[in-house]
Design goal:
Helix content: 40-55%
Oligomer: single chain
Number of helices: 10
Strand content: 5-15%
Largest sheet: 7 strands, mixed
Number of strands: 7
Strand order of the largest sheet: 3-2-1-4-7-6-5
Number of domains: 3
Radius of gyration: 22 Å
Structural class: alpha/beta
Shape: globular
Length: about 300
């Protein structure tokens, strides 16, 4: 979906791959899958509408380079704790050639802030703008990492699907029927193993993904929660879960797909006790349509 087009009625969360989302949701005309900034050729063509925020700080080429640098850093990290350092070090320590203008703006303001009156006011405004750019970069960074983590799961899902088609063709060529003593049992064992491997892959924390998405989602765009543990968490937190009302649903999203609807501030959805003034984009209301367990992952 081009940013110039009509904004989506809802965006799916936390998944960033169309393959992870139920087809019934993908078929909704007003829905979209969040694109963290990758080129259209890297996305599943024709399978879904894509929402590509206009205010993402990294273009597709820079996004791919940043992702490669993050993965390389992860491979070189001696301990898991080393990865935490990556997110708190100055930008130019991590990316020698990437989005340095953000960090440069922050440091260049120190001389302006020595002024008074209009100069000090201008410096304060410039610092705020630089902070907003940096927050956008960090949010996109988190989304790119989440996309990469999903990529491994999608690859295993593709292997299972391809294996199933190939195995069925092999059985048909041998004239084996479903009732006969065929090879389906061996395929099922292999398929179950692939599902186990996919399930063993760590998935990104949906709270982090939702918080990063919120940085770019326009006010009024709803969320379709595609993981059943999201609804369970909100129930445990005591949030008000309402039954879906057919006349208040986005076009194409049937009430039979939904387990409940939540209307709440982003910061409450991700488990914060109060609003953080440094994260103003979380202090906004959003409507979340929660899929039933068989529809979510």
């Amino acid at each position: 979906m081009d940013p110039s087009e009509t904004l989506p009625a809802f965006v799916c969360a936390p998944w960033l791959h169309a393959e992870m989302i139920p087809q019934a949701v993908l078929d909704c005309p007003g829905g979209a899958v969040f694109n963290p900034g990758l080129a259209q050729g890297e996305l599943q063509a024709g399978a879904a509408n894509w929402f590509s925020p206009a205010d993402l700080p990294l273009d597709p080429r820079s996004a791919r380079r940043v992702l490669a640098e993050m993965l390389e850093f992860g491979r070189q990290a001696a301990r898991p704790s080393d990865l935490a350092v990556f997110s708190v070090k100055p930008i130019d320590d991590n990316y020698s050639e990437t989005v340095l203008n953000i960090d440069a703006e922050m440091r260049d303001l120190s001389t302006l802030e020595q002024g008074v009156g209009a100069g000090a006011e201008a410096a304060g405004q410039a610092r705020q703008e630089a902070k907003e750019k940096e927050s956008a970069f960090k949010a996109q960074q988190a989304l790119l990492l989440a996309w990469q983590a999903e990529e491994h799961i999608v690859e295993l899902m593709g292997l299972e699907n391809g294996l199933g088609k190939g195995w069925q063709g092999f059985e048909n060529s041998l004239g084996l029927s479903e009732e006969g003593e065929g090879l389906s049992e061996e395929f099922q064992i292999t398929s179950d193993r692939l599902r186990t491997l996919a399930g063993d892959r760590p998935t990104p924390d949906w709270k982090n993904v939702l918080a990063a998405m919120a940085r770019f989602l326009p006010l009024g765009t709803a969320i379709v929660a595609c993981r059943s543990d999201m609804l369970k968490y909100w129930q445990e937190q005591g949030l008000d879960i309402k039954s879906p009302e057919p006349d208040k649903l986005p076009p194409g999203l049937g009430a039979e797909l939904l387990a409940g609807v939540v209307s709440e501030m982003y910061w409450r959805l991700i488990g914060l006790d109060e609003h953080d003034p440094d994260l103003p984009w979380l202090d906004r209301p959003v409507v979340v349509f929660c899929l039933k367990e068989e529809g979510g992952q």
